[in-house]
Amino acid sequence: MQYKLQEINRELPTTALEFSKADLEANFEKIYKEAKSIFDWNFLSENKAY
């Protein structure tokens, strides 16, 4: 069975979002802490003494 491909309209966004340096830094810190907690948790769970 073969599906017909949809036509995709490609265009650039009409407006660009702008973020302040403080917003970018706060978002980076949030993501960094979340990722670090995931890797720290994985490390701890893999190295438990059973």
In short:
This protein is 52% helix and 0% strand.
Q: How would you describe this structure in keywords?
A:
mainly alpha; flat; 50 residues; 52% helix; 1 helix
Could you give the topology of this structure?
Blueprint: H1 21-46
What does this 3D model show about the protein?
52% of the residues lie in helices and 0% in strands. It is an all-alpha fold and 50 residues long. It is flat, with a radius of gyration of 21 Å. The model has no long low-confidence stretch (mean pLDDT 85).
Number of helices: 1
Oligomer status: single chain
Report the biggest beta sheet as strand number plus sense, adding barrel if it closes: none
Per DSSP E runs of 2 or more residues, the count of β-strands stands at 0
Instruction: Calculate the terminal CA-CA distance, rounded to whole Å.
Output: 52 Å
Order of helices and strands: H
- Ranges where pLDDT stays below 50 over 5 or more residues in a row are none
